[in-house]
Amino acid sequence: MRRGVRGRWGRAGAVALTVGALAVGLSALDVVPAAAQRDRTAAAGAGRSPAGEGRAVFRDPVSTRTAARIATQPATSVLAPYPLDQTLTLHSLPGSQHTIFLDFDGAVVSGTAWNEPDIGLEARGYRGWVVDGDNALGTTELRGIQSIWQRVAEDYAPFDVDVTTQDPGPEALDRSGPDDPVYGTRVLVTSSNAAMRAACVYVCSGSAWFDVFDLATAHDYYQPALVFPRMLGDDVKNVAEAVSHEVGHNFGLLHDGTATDGYYGGHRSWAPIMGAGFGRPIVQWSRGDYAGANNQQDDLALIAANGAPLRADEAGPATTGAGPLPAGTSYITDDADVDVYALGTCVGPVVVAARRAPVSPDLDIRLRLLRADGSVVASANPPAVAWTRDRARGLSATIGTTVTAGTYFVAVDGVGHQGPVKGYGGYASVGSYTLRQTGCVAT
Predict the structure, then answer these.
(1) Last residue of a domain, one of 272, 305, 338
(2) How many domains does the chain have?
(3) Which of 270, 305, 340 marks a domain boundary?
(4) In this predicted model, what pLDDT tens digit does every residue of 89-131 receive, in sequence order?
(5) What distance lies between CA 34 and its chain's CA centroid?
(6) Helix (H, G, I), strand (E, B) or coil at 162
(7) Measuring CA to CA, which residue among 21, 119, 59, 426 is closest to residue 262?
(8) Are residues 301 and 205 in the same domain?
(9) Domain of residue 383, residue span
(10) Cα 298 vs. chain centroid, distance in angstroms?
(11) CA-CA-CA-CA torsion for 384, 379, 315, 81, nearest 10 degrees?
(12) Would you say residue 317 lies in a domain?
């Protein structure tokens, strides 16, 4: 019988397995026991699950500063980008073998590590996200779910992983063994106070097991990751930040902090995802290059190595062989990625515009207009400035210039602003963008 999370009416058998849970405080960085590192082979050879005793669980508390920001600066309200009846069928990368399922309508949690005595989550069904007091998902929740999905999908946009609100079924999430290429994780966003008290001991915004996304055995035993939106004021930005953060723990990411703060809240417009980015509009993955960082994990490399490789690059870095301007969304996947497209024959006034993701963008765009030999005709990279805690200006870029008749190209890449100490570097300036142009005729 398969273990783990089931749908509303699913059943699962309990499994006896000792787990080591770590409770943490707001100002302390979680200490991960050696057994929770990636040496799974030795544990398997010892006759127990490689995810057995010593695997760590992260419990992420809520600070009073976070609560104050929610009360005074709620996240930007936007219209749902899709019809509400499509809310639970959204996909960021359909067809990927790797899945991050955002579960908002409740699930049964049974036979998992959460149900073991040292945590004690009762094996039963837990409701999903409830804002208006009715257990059914209403207009408020459906609009919020779309916004949360957009934000989390943007955080994981560089990777070959489908962020979805549609239940893909257990076969898409569980991993049956090392030869099974199809797996993922579930994030249960639940308004259940009982689930929060059991999983957190004290009040917290979320909790997740460490380094379990691509486990080859006992995979669904460590599902789901849990996020508690009531502890975040049901604020869509903060719920999304918590979801990306907890899934980061599933990928083996530790907290980004400093010597005095276990969760770095960022500076100016920027904060790290594995810190506490609730009060900053630009929240990115990190490699610990900000001042005072106590964690130098390479987040992008670890996610790619631990179950979600980078998505295929859709454009090369040179004018030679460049394809036409894309009709839809394209992606910058790492600091070295440059996408070059052919504009065709251009003459007179030319406008090329690159737009970042509509909400919670991770990508700060630099745009360059090139000649066929690669020389730069014009470029645009406006300074990024915080507008609110949920919005920043200057992440998109537009070139408007006049050119003599000829063949031209456009280059898109991600850049930083003022460096990692004063602002942020280009390391995690990655994510989605769209392009449009006037003044050129494709050839």
Answers:
(1) 305
(2) 2
(3) 305
(4) 999 999 999 999 999 999 999 999 999 998 999 999 999 999 9
(5) 26
(6) strand
(7) 59
(8) yes
(9) 323-441
(10) 15
(11) 40
(12) no
